[in-house]
Sequence to fold (322 residues):
Amino acid sequence: MDIKESIQKLKTSKYFSNYFGLVLLLLLVLIVWGIFKIIAPSNFGAPSQLVSYLQSSLIYAVGGCGLYFIVVMGLFDFSIGANIVLSSILACVFAEKFGFAGLIIVPIICGTIIGLINGIVYIKLRIPSMIVTVGLALIYESLSVFATQGQEQILNSSYSLFGSYPANLILALCAFFLAALFIKYTKIGTYTYAIGSNEFVAKNMGVNVNKYKVVAFVLCGFFVGIMSILIISYGSSMTAATGMSSMSRNFLPLMGTFFGLAFRKYGRPITSIVIGEFIISLIFNGFVAIGAPSTIQNVVTGAALLLIVMVTTKPVKGVVVK
Fold:
């Protein structure tokens, strides 16, 4: 067997498939870290700073895991920013009344209900998910204003347990484990991939497409609810959104989701989402370290999002925007 045949055999092996994507992502982490470390050695990339970067990336990775269930079908949810705002506000309100039970249970319930509403409205109206969720986002923003009368909600410091290590890491790991469990070991994951690959074939095979689309939206809302716990615990305050201002909260989780799509062929979508969000966090903090203006950061964010979308649309056959 010559060298060429040996390389080809390695590429088709299960071991190579499972770990090549992971190695590639970790290499990308080192490259991004190295570039900014060279440019700003005193302001970027120290061990304590890396721990801080990881803390913020964990938050968005949880939301990215939820988005993965719908984006892999070719659907989108642009209401998650409004979902985060409303769930976080309710977490503040109910934490004062019921303690940690209110902080944990209420945002998860709120996020899940919003996901259910999104799924049902999308199925019933039969119009693109982007249009449905943008319209619903306006309604959720209005509810956040109504719930607070426009006043900023502040979480009592005694309930900020999930804003720092190790509690935030434990909650995030639980979310990642649960997402991976759904994707790999349940019908939900199997049918989600089937619908994303070819909805018509999946329907002919007896899959209840509408049901599993709604389930995907529900799971998305569930994980956004968990993300809301981490956000309000980390930031300690939340202000009601108006005029679609919550839309800016959509893109960081979405970018992590696209990493999951790009590397899902290697069998580790959740791991890819987590590492992808860490890479994004490195990039953002790197620009802060070198003193780049926020406009440059926005340009890089947009360019990175377009690049990731371009890469992810190639390996996912049959996925169309719905």
